[in-house]
Amino acid sequence: MQWRRRKQREDDLARELQSDLDLEAEALTNGGLSPGEAQYAAKRALGNTELIKENARETWGWAWFDRFREDTAYGLRTFAHTPGFTAVVVLTLALGIGATTAIFSVVDAVLLHPLPFPNASRLVVIWEKFVRDPDAPPVFDSYRDFENWKHESRSFERLAPATWRVDGQILKGVGPTREVFAVPVGVEFFPMLGIAPEIGRVFEPDDLRTSCTVILKHNFWVETFGQQRNIIGRHIELNENACTIVGVMPPAFAFYPEAAAMWTLITPTSVIARNPTSAVGVFALLKPGISIARAQREIQTIYESDPSNDIGGIHVKPAIFPLDEQFAYLTGPSLRLSVMVLFGAVCFVLLIGCLNIANLLLGKSVIRQKELSVRAALGAGRARLVRQLLTECFLLSVAGAILGILLASVAIHYFRALNPIPMPPGNPVTMNLPVLAFTISLAVITAVLFGLIPAFRASRVELIDALRVSTYSASGSMAGRTLRRGLVISEVALSLALLAGAGLLIQSVQRLASVPLGFRIDALASIPITLPNSSYSSSNQRARFYRAILDRIAALPGVPSAALASSLPPDGRPGRYALRVEIDQRQYSHPLPSTLQECPSHQNTFTSWTCLCSSDEHSMPATARENRASRS
Amino acid sequence: MEKRTRRIDLLQGTLEMLILRTLLFGPAHGHQIGKHIQRTTDDLLQVQHGSLYPALHRLERKGWVSSKWETAPERNREFKYYRLTAAGRKRLVQEESKWKQMARAVAQIMWPAEEH
To answer: How far is B9 from chain A, CA to nearest CA, in Å?
Structure first.
């Protein structure tokens, strides 16, 4: 429709101009000129018909599109003449844009949209911070605090505890008996996150009366039950308690910690609820319109009003954090910073690439001087020339962006396959719409970035000079040289800054990796073991077990020494890991870090310890060797 | 060449006013409009075709003139005739008063003594 109307207008205009020409010629013939002369004179009087047509078209409002089409066609022809140049530019851009896009997809998943939950912006977590040491990492709350806030606060729509400070649970009843990580959560946990289960249902208040209910994580369900859909209501045995499966979460559901295989419900009779000092994280959904600061004041007042929190002065106080940054923090306290640094670095790379291309284009503009002068002589204005050159840049950057998106997809694929750094649970790293939008704007920005200066330079045509000089003066004018020099200088400066930064980073990682631990780890092995509470209910029983196993390991041929510890150095977190056996070679002369304990029989209240022993590697017992292989 | 030096460049927007004024006499095609302006000013204002036709199209787009192909009287040929619309008439009045104000203002600066 549009095109038909347009064609009609074109014909109309041509006819109108022709009739003007005819009338003029007619008048001149009447004045005594021969028809041929009159025709010629009339044409001269009318002037450049193409220019008139172009000016008229401008008033129709289609001109920009026409020009874009023309410029595109012209630009593509130019690129076809210089395939080498075009390939270099497009590849440079593809690498720059591809790298930036790939890292941006990580930024998007870690920093911008980390939570795959509705109402993600209202989700918060309440930790406790040390009053005297505000820089120390926050710690879990007590279950009693959760109950206080639950009953007395008005700021939250929903409030649920969850904790991963628990031992592994021994799973029986499906497949081989093994240890699984089950995270205890409150009844409002899933409604708070707003994610519906894939099959079955989430926890309900009625479940609080039964002893144990569980919801399975998707991949645990796939691995253990092979996606059987009829498992709802089935019993599994966790630490010798019969637990009913009530639901399975969808594959996209993710919550910290990633290793969780299932979630169990905290009931009034469960261990956590019976002990008011149990360590739990309190997660909450703020009511709409309630600020974090307001909720913070409220929970603090509630916290301080509970006399049991005042153990000779307040040592910790509750602090609210938005949940969206917490997953990244929990996964790695410096993850956010590293991702931002990485993103900054690739932006630098892209900037250097742009400067490089700008320089190439400036060089090329000297060669194109003549062509541009001819166009200027034929009536192209400066704006028209700038537009032509910018359109070409735009074409280059679009080609670069398309190739870059392909590169980034490959990079993201490998990133997800290799998993080089631990990523927080939540939205996965993908090429999604925000990332694509980012890439498209990146393409436009880069086009302007590398194209604007060369375009303005090249379009400043000194008509007469350029047309008269038959050979190009290779270096261009003085100002042109200064500009190009400036570009090279900034390029080198940026590259150096980037190189220095990257070098320092690599150096720090190397140094960090070569810091002596105080003991040798090359022939150490650790074996975690969990004792079920039911069979080893008393501390005496557990101590007897540990003593026995330590003796037997120490008696193995080629094991010079063995030890138990509550946690492995240099990881200082106490006591939630199971028994570990470490085997070392000949000398073990370095002092042990303080977290190591030499199987002290009086500290037998722990259910699990770490056992370290040193051994002659060549005669390492089969179990230990296997274990070592599986851990490396 | 001599004629060229005598010619006065039209002020921005003036051409449109002159076209509207010309069409007040009745419908006319592009060639007639150009010739009319040229003749009435003793060839002082020579309207460039390069600006006349774009100006006509612009006026049409703004709705101040309308166009139609019609057969010319005593001629067996169609021409594109432009005629003033109601909006165009209104516009002409506005432009005219604006022009008068401006001419008065310029005169007051150029010949202040003669005014008194």
So the answer is: 17
User: Does residue A73 belong to the interface with chain B, where contact is any CB pair within 8 Å?
Assistant: no
pTM, to two decimals? 0.66
Does the distance separating the beta carbons of A56 and B53 come in below 8 Å? yes
Q: For chain A, give percent helix, strand, coil, nearest 5.
A: 55, 10, 35
pLDDT at residue A336 greater than cutoff 90: no
**CA distance to partner chain B, nearest, from residue A468 (Å):** 26
- Which stretch of A16-20, A461-465, A508-512 has the lowest confidence by average pLDDT? A461-465
Give CA separation, A374 vs A78, A218, A380, A475, B90, in Å: 15, 68, 9, 20, 45
Closest CA to A569 of A590, A592, A600, A589: A592
What is the C-alpha to C-alpha distance for residues A172 and A176, in angstroms, rounded to an integer? 7
Q: What is the pLDDT of residues A378-434, one digit of tens each?
A: 777 788 888 888 899 999 999 999 999 999 999 999 988 887 777 888 888 888 888
> What is residue A148's three-state secondary structure?
helix
Q: Cα–Cα distances in Å, from A68 out to A54, A60, A65, A73, B58?
A: 14, 15, 5, 9, 22
- Predicted local distance difference test score (pLDDT) of residue B108: 86
* A565 three-class SS: strand
Helix (H) or strand (E) holding A142: strand A141-142
Q: Which DSSP letter does residue A112 get?
A: I
Range with lowest mean pLDDT among A26-35, A153-162, B36-45, B107-116: B107-116
Phi-psi region of A126 (alpha: psi -120 to 50; beta: other; left: phi over 0): beta
DSSP3 helix / strand / coil % (chain B, rounded to 5): 60, 15, 25
CB-nearest to B50 from A15, A24, A52 is A52
What pLDDT shows up at residue A356?
A: 86
The predicted structure's pLDDT at residue A476: 53
Interface check B49 vs A, CB under 8 A: yes
Record: contact B31-A12, CB cut-off 8 A: no
By DSSP bridging, strand A262-265 and strand A123-130 are: unpaired
8 Å CB contact between A563 and A611? yes
Helix (H) or strand (E) holding A544: helix A539-554
With beta carbons under 8 A apart, name residues in chain B contacting A47. Answer: 48-50
Closest CA to A353 of A447, A246, A454: A447
The CA-CA-CA angle for residues A327, A332, A335, to 5°, reads 90
Structure token pair of residue A334 = 């410096």
- Find the length of chain A: 632
Task: Give the model confidence (pLDDT) of A363-379 as tens digits.
Answer: 887 778 778 888 887 77
| Domain ranges across chain A | 2-61, 83-111+335-513, 132-314, 524-628
Q: What is the 3-state secondary structure (H, E, C) of B54-104?
A: HHHHHHHHHCCEEEEEEECCCCCCEEEEEEECHHHHHHHHHHHHHHHHHHH
Structure tokens at A539: 């501390």
